[in-house]
């Protein structure tokens, strides 16, 4: 009898335990992706990026004699419908660990099992199952370093090869057309501007990983904080959709470390930050939507998403060069350098005293590497409301940070056209990317700061002290 392989954030053929298990059952395998309410809830750029990822995956599956069946609707109902149509007796999938998925998947598994269908979930999205990492007293970790110490020595299973052939059924169930789904339809800037910046599909991710461990990883520790440099792996985008597995990344980094690459351990530590994000999301699901530390509920954040300061922040027009360069980088490339994420986050939540969830939502709409756990953890970290957060009095100064991490102005020149006689294409692309309704042109004057680095810092510290922090 056929096995349904329910794909979600595991859009790859190598190191795919659920796919290997489905093939090992011996019968036909029917890969299916369901456009359910969780997919419909995605922000614009993540939805658009998902559509492109599905297109690449469908071709890869064809290469091993299979197909990708697309259906929309409630996931359980779709799976049950396919079971009835095809006579499948088993459904397999890779586990996802954010609360919305876990709740839904548990319900799906229970119902399918009650109906006598073998429903089996597999690892593959994480290196370490969140529930297997425990403190000595059986609790979970709230702080990163002990978490790292708990996992660093663990062995990570060697990545699995892709099946040479994925047997299909005699008659394939019908599939909806990907183009009809119009995923990320609002992404007007996508094709012209963002597309060339993507790292799309499994093959591209593998190639990038190989190049990264061959070269930049050695300098990773020293260079990773300089936003103008290509010093980091850029793998967050394929990791977010599972186009590459964390075990593949881990093993490549580990090998580089054994071979003496100086920056490799720091890189592995960063990969484990992603694990830590899911560890926290698993144990404290409210991290995704509410202040992790409840005492922050009383803090008088600015909560209007249409506030002129928020608009200026989103539009890369705050007059603070580091912030604006970074916001434009995200709008044009779908990604933003990690240091820049911290700077724009700090500016929004501290200088502009704005609720971190407004930033979280904008990132979730613009990032092609959007990840629910990493995004929430990152925002709560900068806001100071998270578990292992920056202390409230640590207000990044976006001016001195720029002097330190972009000393030659390469990053700001790349993204801010105003005032340059010959702005680079990247900076001009931003003007092509933004909606007409923003009313911006490359001839505009660069704005004066809406809140200066110093005033913002004073305001933030004052606000915190007033709340007794
Ligand atoms: P590298 O430096 O090459 O690191 C390798 C991998 O480690 C990354 O691909 C990523 O999977 C993981 N990693 C590195 N740093 C972190 C971190 N701080 N938290 C979690 N995982 C990490 N990352 C996302 O993947 N998606 C998001 O939506 C996201 N939102 C963020 C929001 C804020 C406010 C902040 C401060 C950080 C956010 N991050 C997010 C984390 C980090 O900025 C990105 O993972 C990183 O910039 C990706 O670039 P890279 O792949 O070149 O990373």
TrEMBL record:
Pfam families: DNA_photolyase, FAD_binding_7. The record marks 301, 356, 379 as: Electron transfer via tryptophanyl radical. The keyword Lyase applies. SUPFAM superfamilies: Cryptochrome/photolyase FAD-binding domain (SSF48173), Cryptochrome/photolyase, N-terminal domain (SSF52425). One of its GO terms (biological process) is response to light stimulus. Keywords: Chromophore, FAD, Flavoprotein, Lyase. Belongs to the DNA photolyase family. This is Deoxyribodipyrimidine photo-lyase. It comes from Thalassobius vesicularis.
